[in-house]
Design goal:
single chain, 149 residues, alpha/beta
């Protein structure tokens, strides 16, 4: 186990959960999740076979955002997993959760995701009262920012 401080850097106990289905099932038992200082939940296309169902995908993401043990929703901009960005941004703001941007969304690893990423960012940028992201707009963070001291 890593120490709480290593070389003057605060080390957090965290995990990235795999969202496995539309019910919001994850691959880490709750008893372990409770031990973490933060958690990221993500849909990874290779582990989520029925990903073409927009409403069900959105509901799975919203369940994660309402989970008291989750802090960050990971790379929900993947164009192979369609979802309602407006509902997710609104719920993240209401729940005080973060939304992660992943550098794979602009690489060959996830072809075709750039338009989806742009739409996702624009939903977060919408000012209060003028679009889907009001009144509380969550913060987007790049994947590496979650690990900085």
């Amino acid at each position: 186990m890593l120490p709480e401080i290593a070389e003057g850097i605060r080390v957090y106990k965290g995990v990235e959960l795999n969202i496995l289905d539309h019910r919001g099932t994850v691959d880490i038992p709750l008893e372990y999740l409770k031990l973490c200082e933060f958690a990221i939940a993500s849909i990874h296309a290779h582990m989520f076979p029925e990903r073409d169902k927009r409403e069900e995908n959105t509901e799975a993401y919203l369940k994660m955002l309402r989970n008291p043990y989750l802090d960050i929703l990971g790379h929900a901009d993947d164009s192979t997993v369609p979802c309602d960005f407006e509902a997710m941004v609104r719920t993240a703001g209401e729940e005080g959760k973060l939304l992660e941007l992943n550098n794979n969304s602009i690489t060959a690893h996830r072809p075709g995701s750039l338009p989806s990423l742009k739409k996702y960012i624009l939903c977060c940028k919408a000012p209060a009262g003028r679009g889907p992201a009001s009144p509380a707009t969550p913060t987007f963070i790049p994947w590496w920012a979650a690990w900085s001291p």
